[in-house]
């Protein structure tokens, strides 16, 4: 992305901070860190960070360690890169004094209790104590509506994943193991130039397909049973997410009806995804149709979610916490019906909301007309 994109995002964040009592923002979440700076490193695990940002009205600092200094300097051109020589809680107070920080806004969803306690003790021992205050998702709110460059990256991601999934579906045969298919999908994504998968591929057959987030096993595919394939990859940091349910041969009558119901619910919900509509409304349309068909108790999750630098972002298309849909949002539409012990069906498209409605980004065409 052009450097001006990151400068514009910094300007937007500073305007938002100016409306609060927070004078310095401390950004820890990897996706937010990349969104604001361009720094691409990922955090290996919860208690391990590749860096964080300090952003005030006049300064933009990226704090990292020697493992990432070179990459940070290359990728985060609008930031001063500082390499840690001490523990983070020892290095932070001098930086806050330099920035004349009085209130430090932190990402409460990304800060562990242990680090919060250490930082709080450290800054309270200084001659000019600093107040800690939650940022309340300020950067996440900025990311909800995608810029054109973000949509282009997600469209490319979805196009590549669609091609891979179509090839995989064409090659499915009874006797193949769920785990082998999942590994194949991941390998094909990397060979095709993806940065990696957006999440571990879900390949769930027969009774396993009744588990919305099933982990692939050594179970072998069988004829006439449902096979859920839920997949996604990353390009330029941006994710895609799509699901198809496949049958090898004609499904049994029950799953013929279940599939038809899920597809009708998906199409009906897609018609209601428009700018200005509350996010709860498409969910209610799909949920109502599934309930009328007698499967209401078997649709437990929300209709969909936002997608971007992370696979699951705001807005949420669910029965609670309504949010007004806007042009430029990218969301999934994925109703499902799951019968314990028997199997399930989920169908998922990823769409960008435009003036006249949703534009489908996931182009894999494998849908049945039962």
CATH class membership of the largest domain: Alpha Beta
Q: How would you sum up the major sheet? A: 6 strands, mixed
The rough form would be described as elongated
How are the strands of the biggest sheet laid out side by side?
Answer: 4-3-2-1-5-6
Number of domains: 2
Count of beta strands: 19
Superfamily (CATH H level) name of the largest domain: Creatinase/methionine aminopeptidase superfamily
CATH topology name of the largest domain, in short, is Creatine Amidinohydrolase
N→C terminal distance: 44 Å
Going by helix content, strand content and strand pairing, the class is alpha+beta
Tell me what the CATH architecture of the largest domain is: Alpha-Beta Complex
Q: Give the % helix.
A: 25-40%
Report the sheet-strand fraction: 15-25%
Mean pLDDT: 95
Q: Supply Rg.
A: 23 Å
Number of helices: 10
Order of helices and strands: HEHEEHEHEHEHHHEEEEEEHHEEEEEEE
Walkthrough of the structure:
- This protein has 370 residues and is of the alpha+beta class.
- The protein has 2 domains: 3-142, Creatinase/prolidase N-terminal domain (Creatine Amidinohydrolase, Chain A, domain 1); 148-360, Creatinase/methionine aminopeptidase superfamily (Creatine Amidinohydrolase).
- It has 10 helices and 19 strands.
- It has helices at residues 3-18, 30-37, 69-75, 88-98, 113-124, 138-143, 148-170, 178-191, 253-270, 280-292; strands at residues 24-27, 52-56, 60-64, 80-83, 103-106, 131-134, 196-197, 202-205, 226-231, 233-235, 238-239, 242-247, 304-306, 313-317, 330-333, 336-339, 343-346, 349-354, 357-360.
- The protein has a 6-stranded mixed beta sheet, with helices on both faces. The chain has a 3-stranded antiparallel beta sheet with strand order 7-10-11. A 3-stranded antiparallel beta sheet has the order 8-9-12, with helices on one face.
- Strand 18 (349-354) and strand 19 form a beta hairpin.
- Helix 7 (148-170) packs across helix 8 (178-191).
- The mean pLDDT is 95.
């Amino acid at each position: 992305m052009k450097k001006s994109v990151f400068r514009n995002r910094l300007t937007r964040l500073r305007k938002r901070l100016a409306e609060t009592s927070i004078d310095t923002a401390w950004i820890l979440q990897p996706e937010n860190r990349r969104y604001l700076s361009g720094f691409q490193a990922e955090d290996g695990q919860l208690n391990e960070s590749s860096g964080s940002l300090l952003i005030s009205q006049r300064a933009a600092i990226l704090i990292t360690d020697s493992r990432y200094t070179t990459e940070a300097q290359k990728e985060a051109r609008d930031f001063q890169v500082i390499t840690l020589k001490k523990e983070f809680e020892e290095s932070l107070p001098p930086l806050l004094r330099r920035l004349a920080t009085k209130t430090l806004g932190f990402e409460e969803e990304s800060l562990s209790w242990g680090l919060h306690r250490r930082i709080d003790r450290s800054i309270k021992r200084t001659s000019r104590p600093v107040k800690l205050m939650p940022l309340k998702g300020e950067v996440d709110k900025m990311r909800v509506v995608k810029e054109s460059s973000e949509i282009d990256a997600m469209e490319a991601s979805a196009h590549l994943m669609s091609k891979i999934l179509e090839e995989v579906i064409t090659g499915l045969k009874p006797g193949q193991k769920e785990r082998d298919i999942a590994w194949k999908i991941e390998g094909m994504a990397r060979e095709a130039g993806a940065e990696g998968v957006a999440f571990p591929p879900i390949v769930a057959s027969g009774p396993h397909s009744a588990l919305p987030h099933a982990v692939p096993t050594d179970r072998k595919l069988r004829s006439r049973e449902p096979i859920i394939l839920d997949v996604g990859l990353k390009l330029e940091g941006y994710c895609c997410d799509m699901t198809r349910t496949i049958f090898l041969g004609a499904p049994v009558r029950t799953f013929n009806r279940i599939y038809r119901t899920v597809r009708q619910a998906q199409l009906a919900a897609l018609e209601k995804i428009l700018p200005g509509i509350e996010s709860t409304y498409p969910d209610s349309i799909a949920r109502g149709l599934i309930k009328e068909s007698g499967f209401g108790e078997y649709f437990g999750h929300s209709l969909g979610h936002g997608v971007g630098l992370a696979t699951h972002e705001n807005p949420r298309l669910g029965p609670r916490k309504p949010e007004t849909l806007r042009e430029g949002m990218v969301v999934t539409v994925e109703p499902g019906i799951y019968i314990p012990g028997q199997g399930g069906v989920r169908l998922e498209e990823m769409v960008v909301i435009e003036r006249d409605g949703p534009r489908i980004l996931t182009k894999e065409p494998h849908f049945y007309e039962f």
